[in-house]
Amino acid sequence: MSTDQNILVKLNDAGLQLNNKWLVKGVSLQVEKGKIVTLIGPNGSGKSTTAKIALGIYKKIDGSVEKYTNKVGYVPQKISIDWTLPLRVNDFMMLTESLNKETIDEALSLTGVIHLKDKNLGDLSGGEFQRVLLARAISKKPDLLVLDEPVQGVDFTGEIALYELIKKISDELSCGILLISHDLHTVMSATDHVVCLNGHVCCSGSPMDVAKNNEYKALFGEQASQILSRYQHKHDHIHTDEGEIKKN
Amino acid sequence: MFDDFFIRALVAGIGVAFVTGPLGCFVIWRRLSYFGDTLAHSALLGVTLAFTMEFNIAISVFVISSMIALILIQLQKKTNLPGDALLGLLAHSSLAVGLVVIGFLTFIRFDIMGLLFGDILAVSVNDLLIIWIGGAFILLTLKFIWKPLFASTVNYELAEAEGLNPDRAKAIFTILMAAIIAISIKMVGLLLITGMLIIPAAMARNLSSSPQSMVIYSIIGGLLSVIIGLFTSLEFNTSSGPSIITAALLLFILSLFKIKQSIKLKN
């Protein structure tokens, strides 16, 4: 079906409307093998929604999604697990796929949480749990990794190490990664393609192209275009309830 | 060997416990205890249908319970009422309608107490076949859908994103719930079936640290409850259902001591 063998997932003018309000609209992007595509944008700009559309979690969407792989690893932004379930880290690692001990140990070691293997999932700290989530997603050696703010709550040195790990995984497994991140430093250094969202695609392209883009500057501030992680949000337009965009 | 009514009841109860163990864990994990109750209450309609049409009780209960589950799903989609209100509506109205219909069927002698609370005298060799064959079928199906069902119990979006089809697993599980009610109604009675699902599983939760061990403890708890309950029922001439559930409750209370110890150790 695919003309390009390397495409893992492709969104064609995709959007999602809930209660007559557009969460995100008109997103076209594609993730290829071995490439990292990063979604950036302010809160509520539809980053997580776009990721979920790409994953096929939403059924009634506008436009279309073409997914060419079923080997997917997902790290959701927020996950509500019922702690009344008796669930150890080891059980959680095998949640969606049965893995052998070596594979589990390897993945947990990579994210630095092998010592927590027999701990109850409910006893982990936020950062520890985040590392387990990432380990689970990479352990099944997926073709496509979707990481929604994968290092939230992780300490500073861990954050850098995990981003390096993500880059390494993308090279070694040659899997495609759809990354959502607030860290513009990382985005600009390790990403192949950046999509800047604000309810719609503001701009997209290589990190350098995006940094030079006027809409990006307007959204993140002049300094961000000099690849600084200053996070500032200026609207150059407003969104009506129908999802229309009006320039100020 | 199956000539003795008590042996029949024992074999039937053991068969039921093997199936309620794992299913009960999912009822607790997915917070479905009231849902189970609703399906069980609707079983009375199934029983009356079986009597009027001279049909097998287990099959007609299964059909009616599945229909109630379908109606519930439709009502959830089409109304703005909260889930528990819809469950209550269906549970009590189907129980009421069932009792009214029984009132009209004056030409048939009903053992209402037996229907509500179980009757070990009523277990026939035919029932044994239904329990063991139906039970094996339920367990095999559950094994087949275990991964998607468990994964979506932990987190729906993860299961959906990673291609496990949780909606199908959920639909199949609903059918399994109707099936377990159908095969265990004679044993435990329709008012107490949910107890048989929940109490051994709740006891197991107090003792276990992984999902697999919870399932195993739940089965063991169910088996002990059935055996102790049935012997009590024989000895003191009490209804089988309440005897089994009381035994399960005692086991649950015992399991609380274990949980106290482990919490003390943690602190």
Task: Indicate the topology.
The complex is a heterodimer of chains A (248) and B (267).
Chain A: E1 7-18, E2 21-32, E3 36-40, H1 47-55, E4 62-67, E5 72-75, H2 89-93, H3 101-110, H4 126-139, E6 144-148, H5 156-172, E7 176-180, H6 184-190, E8 193-197, E9 201-205, H7 207-212, H8 214-220, E10 237-239, E11 245-247
Parallel strand pairs in A: 3-7, 3-8, 5-6, 6-7
Antiparallel strand pairs in A: 1-2, 1-4, 8-9, 10-11
Helix pairs in contact in A: 3-4
Chain B: H1 5-29, H2 33-53, H3 57-78, H4 83-104, H5 112-117, H6 125-154, H7 156-161, H8 166-188, H9 193-207, H10 211-236, H11 240-266
Helix pairs in contact in B: 1-6, 1-8, 1-9, 1-10, 2-3, 2-4, 2-8, 2-9, 3-4, 3-8, 6-8, 9-10, 9-11, 10-11
Description:
The complex is a heterodimer of chains A (248) and B (267). Chain A is built from eight helices and eleven strands. Chain A is of the alpha/beta class and 248 residues long. Chain A has one domain (7-78, 85-195): Rossmann fold, CATH 3.40.50.300. Chain A has a six-stranded mixed beta sheet, sandwiched between helices. A three-stranded antiparallel beta sheet of chain A has the order 2-1-4, covered by helices on one side. Chain A has a two-stranded antiparallel sheet with strand order 10-11. In chain A, helix 5 links the parallel strand 6 (144-148) and strand 7 (176-180). Chain A is globular, with a radius of gyration of 18 Å. The model of chain A is unreliable at 228-234 (pLDDT under 50). With 267 residues, chain B is mainly alpha-helical. Chain B has a domain at 5-189: ABC transporter involved in vitamin B12 uptake, BtuC. In chain B, 84% of the residues lie in helices and 0% in strands. Chain B has eleven helices and no strands. Chain B is globular, with a radius of gyration of 19 Å.
